[in-house]
Specification:
- With 555 residues, this protein is of the alpha/beta class.
- It folds into three domains: 2-182, Rossmann fold, CATH 3.40.50; 197-362, Rossmann fold (3-Layer(aba) Sandwich), CATH 3.40.50.1220; 376-542, 3-Layer(aba) Sandwich (Rossmann fold), CATH 3.40.50.970.
- 36% of the residues lie in helices and 17% in strands.
- The chain has a six-stranded parallel sheet with strand order 3-2-4-5-7-6, sandwiched between helices. The protein has a six-stranded parallel sheet with strand order 11-10-9-12-13-14, with helices on both faces.
- Helix 15 packs parallel to helix 22 (520-529).
- It is globular, with a radius of gyration of 25 Å.
Length: 555
């Protein structure tokens, strides 16, 4: 049976399980939009294509499924770039469907042309470094191969975004619908290492260590290994720190929690690693700039290092481990626990470890993220959030530093820091995207600078009736820039301060609730009187622009 390419693309997305597609229509993508009219896929009209890309990112992170966004040619597609770069950095399977001008005008100066000919923008070259696969489909005779490659990229263990750019005239051509029958029907299967020797060696190493430490990363969450981490930690009395993206891999209320390891966190985990640890197990964690304190050699010197990751590219990337195991974190930990059981390990004397952790918690602090004054409101807010929504919320966080230090995460919650390319304007659209999949309370955390880059997407939440809590820290400045200029540039403040709009009136114009938090009593009133599950709320928390945490970003 012959069908138009536009309909084939829509059916292709349906086969991939795409339930929602975020974007804005334009003339050169209307054939696909017309085919979406009768589709099971729900279209979501955003206010800007960058918002569409971020929403797709949020949907992918919350669901673990393939997400999709759509844009027309020219600026429609180029406006997606930052969001798709974010998806690439966070390894999110986001399918981008972009329109293109008709092929017969390629190289002739067509309006919004992206062929790269005749001095036009080369759209494919623009996206190629930030996608796993990018292709302009200029003919239909190789369409099956293109869709096959796209499918493999989206379903691979190291998945990432894919761009399919389709000229308007090609969208209207007819092809055989049987093309879809030749595509992969399921994702690639990763087979974990079946060699028992590494897991047995690791079990023996844990038993021999005096102060082992687990560093749990986002790979643990992807593998669903949180219960195994807790079991290993409690059986062997091993303290656990997490990376920023690994927050929620371990209950931070547990006595064995060291919190988050990283330059913008307290120094508790750092001090334990430097002063006590003799064995460090990196579990699905990339030892990146933020986690590693800019690759501080003191963290790893004189210690035995073990790294477990399913992605071979992460192994020995920034340090040389004494033992590396490529495999699913959950599978490997199951094997390790089995060997520990056989060896009769566990339930030993844990007093030295617990005494060391207690000592760190009672110490005056460290050289890193200390909040000496001016942050009582953020601290109280996250404390109440933890109390009211234990394990029952999604947090998309552009601010990071407050939640990293004040929010004690639990495995039931979902914490999504803006850690990919760390772009402002991410939290609100990403949270909205997640809300199209998850019927759970969602919080978008951001500063007043980033808010003004994406606040128009609040109307997308309003238009589609998606409850959302926007937590806005108002200090009328770009906080990180002002902090750096205070610490490193002799307080020569330039282009960091600004005048904010009246957020109460802005919320009224959106038709949403607003709460201004200036005191602790305001926080109590917020949780007592506002519906944080079923409404859209703009929560404005006032902070002092001249109150700085004392960490240095070394920039």
């Amino acid at each position: 049976m012959k069908i138009q390419v536009s309909e084939l693309i829509v059916r292709y997305m349906e086969r991939l399980g795409v339930g929602h597609i975020f974007g804005i229509p334009g003339a050169h993508i209307l054939p696909v939009y017309d085919s979406l009219y009768d589709s099971s896929i729900n279209t979501v009209l955003t206010k800007h294509e960058q918002g569409a890309a971020f929403m797709a990112c949020g949907y992918a992170r919350a669901s673990g499924r393939i997400a999709a966004c759509i844009a027309t040619a020219g600026p429609g597609a180029t406006n997606l770039v930052t969001g798709i770069a974010n998806a690439y950095a966070d390894r999110l399977p986001v399918l981008v469907i972009a329109g293109e001008t008709p092929t017969h005008i390629f190289g002739r100066g067509g309006l919004q042309e992206g062929s790269g000919e005749g001095g036009s923008v080369a759209l494919g070259e623009l996206f190629r470094p930030i996608t796993r696969y990018a292709r302009c489909i200029e003919r239909t005779d190789y369409l099956a191969q293109v869709l096959n490659q796209a499918t493999k990229a989206l379903l691979a263990p190291d998945a990432g975004p894919v761009l399919l750019s389709i000229p308007c005239n090609v969208q209207k051509e007819e092809v055989d619908a049987a093309i879809l029958d030749r595509l992969p029907a399921a994702g690639l299967v990763y087979e974990a290492c079946k060699d028992a020797a590494p897991a047995r060696e690791l079990a023996q190493g844990i038993m021999a260590a005096r102060f082992p430490v687990l560093i749990a990363g986002h790979g643990c969450i992807n593998a669903g290994a949180q219960p195994l981490i807790r079991l290993l930690s409690e059986r062997m009395q091993i303290p656990v720190a997490t990376s920023l993206k690994g927050k929620c891999a371990f209950d931070e209320r547990n006595d064995l929690s060291l919190g988050t390891l990283g330059v913008t966190s307290s120094g508790q985990a750092y001090q334990f690693l430097v002063e006590k640890a003799d064995l460090i197990l990196f579990l699905g964690v990339g030892f990146n700039e933020r986690t590693s304190y800019l690759w501080d050699e003191r963290l790893l010197t004189g210690k035995r290092l073990v790294q477990i990751d399913h992605d071979r590219h992460q192994l020995n990337k920034v340090f040389r481990a004494d033992l590396t195991i490529q495999g699913d974190v959950g599978t490997v930990l199951t094997d390790v626990l089995g060997h520990l059981e056989t060896l009769g390990a566990g339930n030993g004397d844990s007093s030295a470890t617990r005494d060391a952790i207690r000592s760190l918690r009672s110490s005056a602090g460290s050289d890193y993220a200390i909040f000496q004054s001016g942050f009582a409101l953020p601290e109280r807010f996250f404390s109440r959030l933890e109390e009211e929504f234990p394990g029952d919320c999604l947090i998309f966080d552009d601010n990071i530093i407050f939640a990293q230090n004040f929010y004690r995460a639990t495995p039931g919650a979902c914490y999504y820091p803006n850690s990919g390319i760390s772009s402002l304007g991410h939290a609100i659209p990403a949270a909205i995207g997640a809300r199209f999949f998850e019927d759970r309370p969602v919080f978008a955390i951001l500063g007043d600078g980033g808010f003004q880059m994406c606040c128009m997407e609040i109307m997308t939440a309003v238009n589609y009736g998606k409850p959302l809590n926007i937590v806005l820290f108002n200090n009328a400045t770009l906080g990180l820039i002002r902090k750096n200029q205070h610490q490193q540039y002799r307080q020569r403040f330039i282009d960091c301060d600004f005048i904010n709009p009246d957020f109460h009136l802005l919320a009224q114009s959106f038709g949403i609730r607003h709460k201004r938090v200036s005191t602790g009593a305001d926080i109590e009133a917020l949780f007592a009187t506002h519906d944080l599950r079923g409404e859209i709320n703009l929560i404005e928390i006032m902070i002092d622009k001249d109150a700085f945490p004392n960490y240095s970003s070394k920039r």
